[in-house]
């Protein structure tokens, strides 16, 4: 009878420029680079399954056992049986330094004592005799220097806010990646289940799903900040980094648009993903790819992605005109798709229902997308479409927030700029900002409290709109709009006694609900007994710039990793926040 599985996590290895470093303590009775996690055995013959995580350039491993092994199975490369106790496994794929390749193998043996692994050589270097240097990864330090700006260093925080997006990157990381010691290549098979390359894009929050709808909103609003607060980005030295943050998303959207009427809007199953608390470099679960098409459309997803690509085309039109033109062409196709085939997107990508359901419907995305396409093309047809959506869905009323779901208030601001002769937008924007100041709920400490989930995010979003109105709206309201927004950002940055931005200010969060930053390198301790989520100390890696969810309605907040309502981070949380920071750089 075959023995039950034994999971063996072999020593993690980082191959540096000139040296090899091992990063885990050993286990007695066999190779010190192994840790036995579970074991169940019966009589007769048996087998055991092992996993090794090795970030190296090509793989050549010789494994030595202390008693005979019948055969060794390795599914991702070649196996050579040297003799009964020595096996070589190889994989000639090129793996860049600092990225993981997961190696699974199964050893089969006859009745008797389970063979121990007594030697492992990795690309010719012995891993079990202790001769190699034991070390740790160089700590990651904040690359965003303080500038000495006023009470709050808006330039530094803007730098950190954009840096946060580098920590959220999925796929093959670029050479200029700044978050390097603990973020490597990951999810390189995304899209393989449907025969498309869907690598890249952003992990949504503290998890590793790529939700296309909020990612598109994130890209749209990041681009918006770069366009209308360009001076602030430039003064802070963040223009190039901001463009790179937008492009990481738009490159992915272009891949995901696989046909005129086809757009992949999610990679990863939310429920399956959320059962894994570990680094994206170490995940092995299935990551299904989900799409919209003519038979299963999704208006919100198509039109928000169109908005993102249209806005990004403006960002890049004077930098890379060919790329801008490509994005604009796809934006037009996607908007037409969303307009022609109307259906709430979560009816087609049903996994999104429990995570990013479109509660506000698709009317606001039809308006929002049309306004962005008009701004990018100056084609008045899109103003006509915007007006049609406004009338059909009664979009001039009911705005209570600005978010990944509900774009109405954002459309008021955008419309007031791009279609100033149509006073509906300016009037609606003024009414919304008045509501925020006179009718909306506030915490006792002064944060406008628009939603129990991610309260900081909602305050930052509307602070961005208030600063936009201060710059581009009625000059008589400019001072009041700036003062109000400054107060909201002040609460977030420390006015209430502590900062809500990881790595910045007084007593910032150190335990955000974020899998990747909560896991040490090597990840064994994170994967065992859910250590990364449950351990009481700070996250091993500082997630610089991330805006955490925020307080409850009474200013209550505790820096606890398991509190995902108040202490999770997400890409959409930092989008308008970044634009608001750029605006504050301008006015400061």
UniProtKB/TrEMBL annotation:
Catalytic residues in the record: 559, 568
Range of residues in the leader sequence: 1-28
Record-annotated Glycoside hydrolase family domain positions: 154-581
InterPro entries for the chain: 6-hairpin_glycosidase_sf, 6hp_glycosidase-like_sf, GD_N, Glyco_hydro_9, Glyco_hydro_9_Asp/Glu_AS
Catalysis performed (reactions): Endohydrolysis of (1->4)-beta-D-glucosidic linkages in cellulose, lichenin and cereal beta-D-glucans
Signal as UniProt keyword: yes
GO BP term (any one): cellulose catabolic process
Keywords of this entry: Carbohydrate metabolism, Cellulose degradation, Glycosidase, Hydrolase, Polysaccharide degradation, Signal
KW Signal (keyword) present: yes
EC number of this enzyme: 3.2.1.4
Molecular function GO labels: cellulase activity
Domain Serine protease gd N-terminal: 39-132
Top enzyme category: hydrolase
Family as reported in the entry's similarity comment: Belongs to the glycosyl hydrolase 9 (cellulase E) family.
Protein's UniProt name: Endoglucanase
Organism listed in the record: Cherax quadricarinatus
């Amino acid at each position: 009878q075959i023995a039950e599985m034994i999971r063996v996590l072999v020593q993690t290895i980082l191959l540096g420029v000139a040296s090899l470093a091992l990063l885990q303590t050993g286990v007695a009775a066999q190779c010190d680079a192994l840790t036995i996690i579970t074991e169940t055995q019966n009589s007769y013959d048996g087998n055991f399954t092992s996993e090794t995580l090795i970030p190296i350039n090509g793989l050549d491993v010789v494994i030595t056992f202390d008693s005979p092994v019948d055969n060794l199975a390795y599914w991702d490369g070649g196996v050579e049986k040297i003799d009964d106790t020595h096996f070589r496994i190889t994989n000639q794929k090129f793996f860049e330094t600092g990225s993981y390749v997961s190696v699974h193998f199964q050893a089969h043996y006859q009745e008797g004592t389970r063979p121990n692994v007594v030697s492992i050589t990795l690309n010719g270097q012995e891993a079990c005799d202790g001769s190699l240097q034991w070390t740790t990864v160089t700590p990651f330090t904040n690359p965003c220097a303080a500038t000495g700006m006023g009470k709050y260093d808006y330039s530094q925080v803007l730098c950190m806010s954009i840096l946060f997006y580098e920590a959220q990157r999925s796929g093959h990381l670029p050479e200029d990646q700044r978050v390097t010691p603990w973020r490597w290549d990951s999810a390189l098979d995304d899209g393989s289940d449907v025969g498309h390359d869907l690598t890249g894009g952003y992990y949504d929050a503290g998890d590793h799903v790529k939700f296309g709808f909020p990612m598109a909103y994130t890209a749209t609003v990041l681009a918006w900040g770069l366009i209308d607060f360009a001076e602030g980005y430039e003064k802070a030295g963040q223009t190039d980094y901001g463009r790179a943050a937008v492009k990481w998303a738009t490159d992915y959207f272009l891949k995901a648009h696989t046909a005129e009427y086809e757009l992949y809007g999610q990679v990863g199953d939310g429920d399956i993903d959320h059962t894994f608390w570990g680094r994206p470099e170490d995940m092995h679960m299935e990551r299904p790819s989900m799409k919209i098409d003519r038979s299963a459309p999704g208006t919100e997803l198509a039109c928000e992605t169109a908005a993102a690509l249209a806005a990004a085309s403006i960002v890049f039109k004077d930098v890379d005109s060919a790329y801008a033109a490509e994005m604009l062409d796809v934006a037009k196709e996607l908007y037409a798709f969303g307009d022609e085939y109307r259906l709430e997107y979560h009816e087609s990508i049903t996994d999104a229902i429990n995570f990013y359901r479109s509660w506000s419907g698709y009317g606001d995305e039809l308006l929002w997308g049309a306004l962005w396409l008009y701004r990018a093309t100056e084609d008045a047809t899109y103003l006509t479409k915007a007006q049609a959506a406004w009338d059909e869905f009664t979009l001039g009323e009911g705005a209570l927030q600005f978010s990944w779901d509900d774009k109405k208030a954002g459309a008021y601001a955008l419309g007031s700029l791009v279609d100033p002769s149509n006073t509906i937008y300016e009037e609606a924007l003024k009414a919304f900002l008045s509501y925020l100041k006179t009718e909306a709920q506030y915490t006792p400490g002064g944060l406008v409290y628009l939603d129990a989930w991610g309260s900081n995010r909602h305050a930052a979003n509307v602070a961005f709109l208030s600063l936009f109105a201060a710059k581009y709206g009625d000059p008589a309201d400019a001072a009041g709009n700036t003062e109000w927004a400054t107060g909201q950002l002040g609460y977030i940055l420390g006015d209430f006694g502590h900062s809500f931005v990881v790595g910045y200010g007084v007593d910032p969060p150190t335990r955000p609900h974020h899998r990747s930053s909560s896991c040490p390198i090597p990840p064994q301790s994170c994967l065992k007994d859910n250590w990364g989520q449950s351990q009481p100390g700070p996250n091993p890696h500082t997630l610089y710039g991330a805006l955490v969810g925020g307080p409850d309605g009474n200013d209550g907040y505790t820096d606890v990793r398991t509190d995902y309502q108040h202490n999770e981070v997400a890409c959409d949380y930092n989008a308008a926040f970044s634009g608001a920071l750029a605006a504050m750089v301008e006015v400061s």
